[in-house]
Amino acid sequence: MTNLVKEKIREMKDWLVEVRRAIHMNPELGFEEVETSKLIVEWLEKFGLQVTKGVAKTGVVGLLQGNKRGKTVAIRADMDALPLEETNQRPYRSRIKGKMHACGHDAHVTILLGVARLFSAIRGQVKGNIKWIFQPAEEGGGGGRIMVEEGVLEDPNVDAVFAGHMFPDLRIGKIGIYEREGLAASDRFMIKMLGKGGHGAYPYLSKDPIHAAGHLITQINSIVSRSINPLDSAVVTIGKVTGGTAFNIIPDEVELLGTVRSLNTRVREMLKFRLEKVTQGVARSFEMDCQFDYQYGYPALVNNPEMSQLVASACTRGVGQDNVEFLRPSMGGEDFAYYLEKIPGAYFRLGCRNEEKGIVNPLHSSQFDIDEDVLPLGVEMFTRIIDQYLGLELF
Ligand SMILES: [Zn+2]
Ligand SMILES: [Zn+2]
Which residues surround the ion ligand 2 when the cut-off is CB under 5 Å? Predict the structure, then answer.
């Protein structure tokens, strides 16, 4: 059966590809998405939405108020690129040196614009309100937190919020969804072992921070295995160790930097507590001082199970049951978590891998690309989610 909405989405395929490539060729880093933001504003105004610019610096919010009263649903895209040189040789590759859309945020923006275009054409059928959230700086800048602080979930109050993300682990046409926990709280720590430097030949006259750091690394790696319930998930990784200048000098200090991942607050607090205790304990055992600094990053991303079911059922109607799967959480991070801390919603994955077209590279790779068939598919999936949430019966 041909359906008006499906027909309209099919018609906009070339336009979606054009928009995506324009954004892809001009990637901008977090909080610098000036041109991307302008492009979004231009289209949203053309579609006749109420537009708010300059939210969280470069963020944009669009609003469509239906003729009939109903709930308010929001959809969100991130706009930022990564500091990475694209090595693809495609005609639409990045034109900006050292910057690249390697996480698919160009596609996220495009899909949301496609949804805006669609609903502007059928606005008479909208019951309730639809809000479009284009946020800056997902890649570490926490743009989502600032958008929430600046009130994007208010006026009108948003009842549910949804976001999708490119996912090269899944083939094009497939949708992945997290039932509850989807991504991890991602925190970081800095530890300094403060010893006393000296000649490498006379260690008994020094306090060797490298020796202490060696013990500390081993101790830290026992936290997850000995202090965390094996049925919970946790990661502690030390990613950088700095200390020393020459083979025969004991340095004054050693610095360790690391990341901590968890899926709930209980585990998160336990990891922080144990890291600090272990650091202090090791330092004491070597009679040296230490510094411990822990920085909270994005919270864990936790979907509302009812909203996950809604996404699964809406997408199933579009792509069939065989193409919708529930995914295990992963220990990456995502600042959509800040929205989900405030209101119910769900975060899902759009498969964008296609072996036949050679599109197989992971997110954040300099060779990342998407099968552009995901653009109209993404528009359809978001439209179905909105349709089902607001009870519009468009399909
Ligand atoms: Zn990313
Ligand atoms: Zn991303």
Answer: 103
